[in-house]
Amino acid sequence: MEPDVSIETSRQIRVAILPIGGPIPPSYLREYTSLIARHTRVDLASIASFYTEQQKSPFAHQPWDTGSLSFKFVLGDCSASPWEDFQPCRKVLAVLGICHLPSSSPDLDSVSDQFVSACRPYGSALATRCFAFCPSDAQLAEKKREDIVLLASADRQAMELHMLTLVQELAASLLMEFEKWVLRAESTGTILKTPLDSQSSLGSEEVIKAKKRRLGRAQKTIGDYCLLAGSPADANAHYSTAIELARLTGDVFWHAGALEGSVCALLVDRVGQQDPAMEDEVKYRYYTVIQLYRRAFLQDNAQRVSTVSFELEATLKLARYLCRREHSKEVSDLLMGAADGAKSLIDATDRLILFIEIARLFGSLGYRRKAAFFSRQVSQLYSQQENVSAAMSALQVLALTTDVYRVQSRKNKKKEQEPSTNPPQSIVSLFESHWSTIQMVVLREILMSSIRAGDPLSAWGAGARLLRSFYPLITPAGQSGLASSLSNAADRLPDGTRCADPCLPFIRLHSFPLHPSQNDMIKRNPAKKEWWTGSAPTGPFIYTPFTKSSSSTGNAAKDQIITWIVGEPVQVLVELANPCSFELVVESIYLSVHCRNFDAFPVTVTLPPNTSKTVLLSGIPTEPGPVNIPGCIVHCFGVITEHLFKEVDNLLLGAAQGLVLSDPFRTCGSGKVRNVTFPSNIAVIPSLPLLFSNLVGGAGANVLYEGEIRDITVNLTNVGTSPVEEVNVSVSGKNLDSVIRVDNEKLGTVLPLKPGGEVSFTVTLKAWQLGVADTDSDARRVSREGSSPYLVIHYAGPVGSNPEEPLPPGRRLVVPLNICVVQGLRFVQARLLSMEIPARFAQQHSSTEPGPDSVKTLVKIDPYKGSWGLRLLELELSNRTDVVFDLTVSIEADDTAYHKTRIDRDYSARVLIPLEHFKLPVLDEISSKPELNASISALINKIKVRWHSGRNSHGELIVKEAVQQALQGAVLDILLPDPLTFGFRVEKGGDPIRACEVTALEAVIRNNTKETIRLSLSVNCKDVAGENCCEGHDATVLWAGVLNNIPLEVPPLKEVVHSFSFYFLVPGDYSLQASAVIIDAIDLLRARARSTLPDEPIFCRGSPFHVQVIGTT
Amino acid sequence: MASTACFVIVSKNDIPIYEAEVGTAPRKEEVAYQHQFILHAALDIVQDLAWTTSAMFLKSVDRFNDLVVSVYVTADVHTRFMLLHDSRTEDGIKSFFQEVHELYIKILMNPLYMPGSRVTSSHFDTKVRALARKYL
Fold first, then answer.
1. Where in the numbering of this chain does the Trs120/TRAPPC9 fourth Ig-like domain appear (chain A) (predicted)?
2. Helices A348-365, A368-383: crossing angle, 10 deg rounding
């Protein structure tokens, strides 16, 4: 059987191309043959100039205008076929020698000799030519030779033109040879034999029959030559005669041959016409041909020679003719019939050709699976041949089937998929046609044949695909076997070989551990000085619906933009799985980067059988620009492969839907499917400054007592590669008011902070008060984690010179101030105490300013104001800590300090705070609540209780709330002054008051309101027993002036003095007290007096004044 | 019963969702592979043929050597029952396909079964093998 047969084969002139004068380098051989082989069709019109009609041409109807000759060039040896007489198209009718002169001997004579001897086996050749390429100048200069055509080197176009002429000349001489042959055959007759005839016994009847047959056969052969000469009309006439004769003589085989020739003549005649009637004619005739060949099959010589191959060739020719979609049923029936015939073929090569042709025809019909099936049959036939080149052929044929069986190498897959940009309709389409049994067999056959063919790379690739895709179906022993064949293949490959097909392990993206410094990049708002504001959602709400919707509508993973910075290392966590039963050594694995701006660092991993491992891969971006990391590069089993994350994601998706065999990660005991997709856009930006903070004294927690005040030094170092030009420190988080002061003025002075530069600044902290919720299990109060405030440092590098460019982002450094607040003094209770202490009249009436020695007294009394109803705030505190606290009470406004109060461990103590100096100067309506509150908080803020403990710790007791609570009811009384202030003074100051003397006294009445008050004043004097001394029978004090019901009118905020005199009869202690009834009191006064009835008299009483009367001696 | 018979259900994605060697011939790995290849190749012809007829049973559509492929296509033309056999009892094969179709519909009605995924029910397997013994 011959490959590539079609109906047209009958008209093709076979020309053998033989390399002459030693082997030709492949590239030249390819070039020369392509020069020749393109002339498969030579128009008759073009050869007319080379044609000379020596005698009358037997081809009477030759179509010189439209006809053509057809050539079939065969490279290399082609052995003579025993069927040459039957079909002249099988004969080698011309021999072309090609010689590459630089690689052959310089002697053209020897080339000529070699050519002659090479032509010797081709007895049937009617013309021979030898073309010698690339002659040297010396060879060109020689005398022109008849036997060798020298083709001087020229450009391709010139060579093509030259070759066309040569081929046309060859065609013309062949045509003339055909004419000669036909004339000779017509005149003398010829004996034509086929292997079928040689054994036939020649009886007398047979001899007569053979004579008749000879005539028919001659006619058929002349028809064949007419066809070769490109004259279908002549051919048809001869064929008709031949068919008639063959039918008469029962020469079935030649009948079929003539009929076949007539179909070819028909097609050549009607070239370009495609009408259904002709198609039916061709079909009808060819079915007859097939039938005839079948009849010619003689059982008796079936062992020796068989016509089956002619029957099959005829079937293939018809199938090729019909091979179109609309005839698919018919063609596949024909091909199935042909496939059945394979059993009757004796020669293995014939079977091979048959299957190849069937596969090709199914392929061109669009039946790719059928084509793949027969290709596999071909590869099996090749594999039976047990030699390297057959194994290579088997490998190549199998490689053609891989895309149908969906086991193709990724290398070929890419080529296919690149043009189609539309994404797959569904995930299912990714797993289409996964017929695992078949795929495994095909891969194993590829592996076997590539081992036999000595192609370690394809062996490795097939083994890798087999192991990766079908490990669940392979026994542990098989897995180990594959692993060792992978290693064996790798041993025969040079180091660093890359293969398109990944093997193990399976790699998926685990997560993106972002370093905080990567996260804390802030887009600068060029419009604002405080560029970091506005980048975060502002407004009072934590949840803003607008920002949420924008992130949730798009694919969250796609929207995620990751920014990496030049020179700062980044990390990616990947998970590796080895689902096989052998230990897998990954010699190195690193991130695969398709752009040049990233340096990835390799790591080595060993995966025990059936395990998975999470591995941290890192790298450093080196240049600004986008980075795309589709997967990892793995060096495993001696070969470098690229593993794409996307493929594993698809695999896992398929596993989740039950379409793929199994999920490698689940079998390794790794958890659920995480859907981490690699962000498609990672941008690398130019280097930024990077600050590193260090709290002096360690980053550990500062343990502070409630209210303790402490300075902390923060050290900032620029560890980046560009200077810091802007720094702003702000405080954020909880318990903000605990940061009293941030000394960041110093920062401004050191800018720009060069790389490597350091700066430190102080933060003053005051520990906050613990809440109820902070109580821990030991009933000891300790602040909870996360309640500390933190410093937020916004900083930025230099702004680019080009204002068009977007600003490089700024950064944020968060420095947590790890404060641990523990309870110091425990507040037990606060009480408001009232005391009635008479004013010291005697000693201090004359001095308006308190004397220096009065500082030591606990209660200061202004004699003009009096101290009636002094209020004290008593705080009870207990000390449960293990240190001693010293307390100091001070009141702002006057910086008097009172005695220190020491509270020892496990003791309680009380601290008294006088609430005397807070009175407002004017009794006025405090109408608005805020005003009142402001006054109250001003009052409370004035009270400071400071403490010291040990050498270093000091702070302030946080008692505001306690004070406020204690003062709740009485705050108005404390704040508001009485409407009237009563005072007494001695008219002539300096001397002590003596008994039995007239002492002139003055009562001073001050109006504290903004209205004029009319009142009636009364003054009385009491002795130590509290008896009234001025009235009654045993009065001890005589008096002059008016003491009772003195009508007075006091203008607003003014004083009025009422004078009177006393005469003390007995020395001793007395107390003077003034009182008044206010006439026509205004509402304000009524409110102050808390009177309920509108006409109730308002009674005011001053504080008692103490008078010491000494005796007269 | 046929000496060689290989029954496969092919889903709409051209994935075999059920495979069974139901012949009496001793099971050989190599042969079984060959059966699968023949069935796979026959899909091309089934694909064309299924649209030319309204019958579900397509009779024998393909052959290789002595082995014949008979196909039954469910109404949605997506699931194909393919039988590779060497016997010629067309009626038996038809009955076999019809009864397997009923079993397959029961599988489909299982709410836990995802159409297009592998049929793993051992009950189904047992029944199919019983039907093969009965009809083939």
1. 993-1109
2. 160
The total of other beta-carbon atoms located within 10 Å of residue A615's CB is 19
Q: How confident is the model at residue A863 (pLDDT cuts 50, 70, 90)?
A: very low
Q: Which of A333, A340, A367, A661 to mutate to test the interface with B (most CBs of B within 10 A)?
A: A367
Dist CA A351 CA A370 (whole Å): 17
| pLDDT band at residue B102 using 50, 70 and 90 as cut-offs | very high
> Which of B11, B45, B68 is best to mutate for the A interface (most A CBs within 10 A)?
B45
Answer whether A836 touches B (CB < 8 Å). Answer: no
Let me know: does A242 contact A217? Beta carbons within 8 Å: yes
Residues 6+ apart with CB under 8 A from A495: none
Query: What's the CA gap between A395 and A412, in Å, rounded?
Result: 15
Contact B114 A657 (CB under 8 A): yes
Contacts of A351 in chain B (CB under 8 A): none
Q: Say which CATH topology domain B5-135 has.
A: Beta-Lactamase (3.30.450)
**Between residues A1010 and A871, which one has the greater pLDDT?**
A1010
Q: Which of A332, A441, A659 sits opposite B45 (nearest CB)?
A: A332
Cα distance between residue A926 and residue A931, in whole Å: 7
Q: How close A473 gets to chain B, by Cα (Å)?
A: 14
Tell me how far apart the alpha carbons of residues A1099 and A1091 are, in angstroms, rounded to a whole number. Answer: 10
DSSP A599-656: EEE-EEEEE-TTEEEEEEEEEEE-SSEEE---EEEEEETTEEEEEEHHHHHHHHHHHH
A974: alpha, beta or left, given left = phi > 0 and alpha = psi -120 to 50?
alpha
Listed by start position, the domains of chain A span 7-188, 506-685, 691-822, 832-955+966-975, 980-1110
Residue A368 near chain B (CB below 8 Å): yes
**Of A958 and A100, the one with more pLDDT:** A100
CB-nearest to B118 from A328, A370, A658 is A658
Interface contact flag, B13 A431, Cβ < 8 Å: yes
Question: Residue B37 is nearest to which of A339, A376, A431, comparing CB atoms?
Answer: A376
Would the CB atoms of B45 and A434 count as touching at under 8 Å?
A: no
Q: Which of B37, B48, B114 is the closest to A438 by Cβ?
A: B37
Task: Locate A762 and state its tokens.
Answer: 């102080």
**Domain A691-822 class in CATH:** mainly beta
Identify all chain A residues contacting B48, using CB atoms and an 8 Å cutoff.
328-329
Instruction: From the options 3.30.70, 1.10.15, 3.40.1170, 3.40.50, give the CATH code of A7-188.
Output: 3.40.50
The tokens describing A1052, both together, are 């607003």
**Closest to A373 (Cβ–Cβ): which among B13, B16, B37?**
B37
Domain A980-1110, CATH number (from 3.40.630.30, 2.60.40.10, 2.60.40.420, 3.30.70.20): 2.60.40.10
* Torsion region of A90: left, alpha or beta (phi above 0 gives left; psi -120 to 50 gives alpha): alpha
Strand partners, A844: none
Contact B41 A372 (CB under 8 A): yes
* Highest mean pLDDT of the ranges A50-59, A830-839, B117-126: B117-126
Measure CA B1 to chain center.
16
Min Cα distance B34 → chain A (Å) is 9
Q: Please compute the mean of the pLDDT values over residues A817-831 and round it to a whole number.
A: 77
The reply to whether A691-822 shares the fold of A7-188 is no
pLDDT digits (tens, 9 = 90+) for B63-86: 888 888 899 998 876 788 998 888
The larger pLDDT score, comparing residue A546 to residue A79, is at A79
Q: Which stretch of A312-321, A692-701, A735-744, A1092-1101 has the lowest confidence by average pLDDT?
A: A692-701
Residue closest to A711 by CA, chosen among A750, A759, A761: A761
Find where tokens 């590193």 sit: A692
State which amino acid sits at residue A487. S
